[in-house]
What does this fold into?
Amino acid sequence: MAEKVVVGMSGGVDSSVAAYLLKKQGYDVIGVTMQIWQEEDRQQREENGGCCGLSAVDDARRVAQRLDIPYYVMNFKQEFKRRVMDYFVEEYLAGRTPNPCIACNRYVKWESMLKRSMEIGADYIATGHYARIARLDNGRYAIRNSVTAKKDQTYALYNLTQEQLAHTLMPVGEYTKEEIRKIAEEAGLPVAHKPDSQEICFIPDHDYAAFVDKEAGDRAPGAGSFVTAQGRVLGEHLGITHYTIGQRKGLNLAMGHPVFVTQIRPQTNEVVIGEAEEVFADTLYCDQIHYMGMEELTAPRTVLAKIRYGHGGEQCLIEKAGADRVKCTFSRPVRAVTPGQAAVFYEDGYVLGGGRIIGVSPAEE
It folds into this structure.
């Protein structure tokens, strides 16, 4: 009997081709779209091409019909609201810049969907991520870079568990985006030329601050002061939720030269402004450590570390800095160390683990 795999189908070309490839490989494939969008009117439905809009259901269903596989919609609204949207708001209120895709991958796309899939007798779940899964010589599973650096999505998958990885398939990681579109076209999939979604799916208008302020209600931070590191007031800002580390545009400060956000202080509702060189740092600290390719960090280790999704990575030494904390010392300074983002550690193209960035000092939060 063929092994059963539930494919998370977002209505995009990547997950559609994942379902196609797995069926071709002989798996018993079931297509599933996660219903996680909270409210959506007709206009939003037409505009929102993201992975959690109702339009995704229409496209995914058409692909499933073309592939002749069963297709279902699973409701994960509650899990998504609690694990992703609420987390997103709380992190911004705390002066951090979160990555909601990392939370969604770990707690919704994997934890919730895998549990539901196992309950209906599946052996695996699968996604259309540009990443691969390998079993290392030490017996542990690890996410491995995809064949295409341009689309590589390993950064947002660093905190998946060993149990989750053991029951996951990622067939798209063996191909480039161009190859995936060609496969979709040759297979007659109706989404072969569908554009990629770029925005955070639950904020299609890109206005993060307005979303956070609306969700926070009377807890939303109002206007406050732009200050120097020494405390000199430079002007008034719109609220800390409008800013992130390294930001230059939209500050509306007449300083006569470019200046940048170097720190956000939620306790005092201040945004610290500095010069270009102050945005660079050669150390950072992170917490909420998750190990993947290694079981534990027992001694200082030199790795490649990425500090945001689009970061190419920089060599650094990682070492323990107390319980559930790691210090990263970079061989060259890195730009815009941003609390709330992830620092992800790689070795030979495999994810060793990672953690949430606290800041450039262990006591920054």
